[in-house]
Amino acid sequence: MANKTIQVTADVLGKPQQFTCTQGQEQELYDAVSLLNRRVEEMKNRSTVRNEHNALLMAALHLCHEVNALNKDADNTSSALKTLCEKLSSTK
């Protein structure tokens, strides 16, 4: 059975925007919008960026940087776990 998609309205930078998401994932969408809005405000408050477009760009870049760092950490952890499993298997 295919997942049903629904229309959701969320305020991005104070303006209502329409999004499509899988039914049951609405809260994750709202959480993501909330995080983005907070990050844009942080960019506007802690730098000379006052233009919403530039603040949005900076927030997106910061979030992408964090995702890349988390992915790298996950890869390193996965590699370390694989090595440990191999060592455990070889001692049996």
Account of the 3D structure:
By secondary structure, the chain is α+β, with helices and mostly antiparallel strands. The chain contains two helices and two strands, in the order ββαα. It has a two-stranded antiparallel sheet. Strand 1 (5-12) and strand 2 form a beta hairpin. The longest helix is centred in the last third of the chain and has 39 residues, at 52-90. It is flat and about 60 Å long. The protein starts with a strand and ends with a helix. The model has no long low-confidence stretch (mean pLDDT 92).
- The share of residues in extended strands comes to 15-25%
Order of helices and strands: EEHH
Fraction in helix? 55-70%
- Structural class by secondary-structure content: alpha+beta
The number of strands is 2
* Oligomeric nature of the chains: single chain
Question: Which runs of at least 5 residues are low in confidence (pLDDT < 50)?
Answer: none
How are the strands of the biggest sheet laid out side by side?
1-2
- Outline: flat
Q: What does the main sheet amount to?
A: 2 strands, antiparallel
The CA-CA distance between the termini, in Å, is 45 Å
Mean pLDDT across residues: 92
Q: Please give the radius of gyration in angstroms.
A: 20 Å
Q: How many helices does DSSP assign?
A: 2
